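fyi for ur records
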Amino acid sequence: MSGTNRVVVTGLGAVTPVGNDAKEYWASLKAGRHGFGPITHFDASRYKVRIAGEVKNFDPALHIEKKDIKRMDLFCQYAVSAAAMAYGDSGLNGGNIVDRLRFGVIISAGIGGMKTIEEQTVRVMEKGPDRINPLYIPMAIGNMGAGNVAIKFGAKGVCMDIVTACSSSANAVGEAFRYIKHGYMDIVMAGGAEASITPTTVAGFTALTTLMVTDDADRASIPFDKDRGGFVVGEGAGILVLENLEHALARGAAIYCEVAGYGATCDAYHMTAPDPNAACAAEAMRQAMREAGAAPDRIGYINAHGTSTPLNDPTETKAIKLALGDSARSVSISSTKSMTGHTLGAAGAIEAIACAMAIKDGFVPPTIGLQNEDPECDLDYTKGAGRARDIEYALSNSNGFGGHNAVLCFKKY
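which gave:
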């Protein structure tokens, strides 16, 4: 057991509003294609918000046995499907996992089985308690993304669901990194999943005034634009296979990038609003850079939390300036939520995949929809179109209700 193991990314799997595998997802980001349209998961005709980032043409049967599909909420189907793709992408099979007690799973959900909770609540209210689905509880609870993935792949090490709202899956990847770095695990499948485009979730976020009210899909998610008015709710899953470098090299694995640092803080300020002084958000970035040994001038790309809400975007801009100093002016920044929407508990992992691909391809994806500059958001947000850039280090920022800040630092391998 060592405290200095290097940790690498050897597999990626994604189910997103802009692609149902990591390759298609990344191609959409590079091309600047968004995945927004009218809500089809339920009748939203009476809602102020009728636009969302739904997953399209998803077929769980590609990765999950038919009998098991019926036992899983949609968020769990997304998690298991993305995990199956990441597992396959990593080249893992039963023969080259030496010790299954050192193979872990940390997969988060910010909310969990919301679709199941809503449907079964209505059923009990209308038809009585005896009519509830016997599997209601294991379908609803958020840890079953991790649990079902562990069952499917025989992962007998650490198995957790970290819930920190919209920072959940960034924390999952960060904690998985630490489990391997400090010698407790050899491999961890890490990430998050969410399927919360449901009647009460959309109604709840609308009542909280955090969603953009518009029927123009092209102007629905516009991070850092002065006309922004809220986020677009999205859904999906992102799973990364993190691995001890020595273990990966011993089995001849292909490597996307290295996970080099992780920072986590709390604003301890407000239930939903970020602290306007941005000090703790900046400190999480500094922690990730310090652990990675990355000076601010070596950060080439930041995947911003960039929710398109009035408070988040200028506060995050301030945090980047505090953390990077003069180098904030030269770093390339983008919010891929301009294309995926905000996938809540899955966001950190889906955006971590974007960072891994950005480093591997030497390309910064754009912030689409950004048209009207906000004087409070005055950094380089890769407006309109992506561009080639050699990236040594990339940061992925996540912030969640409750004041949670999580930052991942990735390094070119």
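The chain has two domains: 7-250, 261-411. thats all i got for now
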